[in-house]
Amino acid sequence: MRKKYLFYPALLLILCWTLFPIYWALRTSLLNDADITSQPIKYFPNPASINNYLHLLGFHEQTSIWQSFSRALSNSLITCLLATIIVVIISVVSGYVFARLEFHGKNMIFFMILITMALPAYTVLIPLYKIMISLELVDTQRGITLIYVSAFVPLSIWVMRNYFKTIPKELDEAAMVDGASKLRALWTILPLTLPGVITAAILTFLNAWSQFLIPLVFAPSETKPLTVLITEFNGRYTMEYGMITAAGMLTMIPPILIVLFLNRYLINGLMSAAVKE
């Protein structure tokens, strides 16, 4: 009983710690510039205004803001979706190979793939930048997509490899007894791995969507995503708090929708992928 009384206050504290910054950003986005910096502090947006959102979405005369916002939104969607599709394809095939096939050095190769997740991005930033310059991929959607794929495919391979291990090998063997190749056997059991595939896709998309350092360095102008665009509302002498928070709230919509509608697949996939061998 004592644990029960401690659980709910702790849960409430965690919720407040997590949700209060989001509420404060929403509150700031609904205030005009004068009310944001006024004293005493307004803890509720009264009066509330959606002018910041109207500016961003092009309903006011400042069309240049909408053009920049729409281009950044397009860049974010294209690079994240492309990276997600490519990562899922690679991780499904690689996960099946590491889970089902036996070959020399399999465990070492798998370990080397996983160890790349422990490398901080800034440790390879300079050599990677030189490589991207030599390939003429700086400030291109192809370049950003390539970096996202190389950064997030190890985690997805781990998820899919462990998920394939939860599926009985007899299903593969039955398909191959009927004359199916290994690729055909993979295609046969692929529907059973749907939670794992969705989990890999969600993790890749969310990680790519939230990136800031990588696109800041490799896509600073034409192909910059929303996360980089938001910082441009911070001028040298002014700080447009309302525009920054409004853009931030709009940027949060895709991840929130994904988590709300696909969270059961994410939980199921992660739980299954975490089983011990």
Protein model, in words:
- Helices cover 71% and strands 0% of the residues.
- By secondary structure, the chain is an all-alpha fold.
- The chain has 2 domains: 1-49, no CATH class; 62-273, Orthogonal Bundle (MetI-like fold).
- α7 packs antiparallel against α10 (194-209).
- The two termini are 36 Å apart.
- The mean pLDDT is 85.
The CATH homology group name of the largest domain: MetI-like
N-to-C span: 36 Å
CATH architecture of the largest domain: Orthogonal Bundle
SSE order, one letter for each helix or strand: HHHHHHHHHHHHH
Count the DSSP helices.
13
**Number of domains as seen in the coordinates:** 2
| Helix content percent band | over 70%
Categorize the overall geometry: globular
Indicate the radius of gyration in whole angstroms.
23 Å
CATH-assigned fold name of the largest domain:
MetI-like fold
Oligomer: single chain
| Strand coverage percent | under 5%
Outline the secondary-structure elements:
Layout: H1 2-29, H2 33-36, H3 51-56, H4 63-100, H5 106-115, H6 125-134, H7 141-165, H8 169-177, H9 182-189, H10 194-209, H11 213-218, H12 226-229, H13 241-273
Helix pairs in contact: 1-13, 4-7, 4-10, 7-10, 7-13, 8-9, 10-13
Features:
277 residues, mainly alpha, MetI-like fold, 13 helices, 0% strand
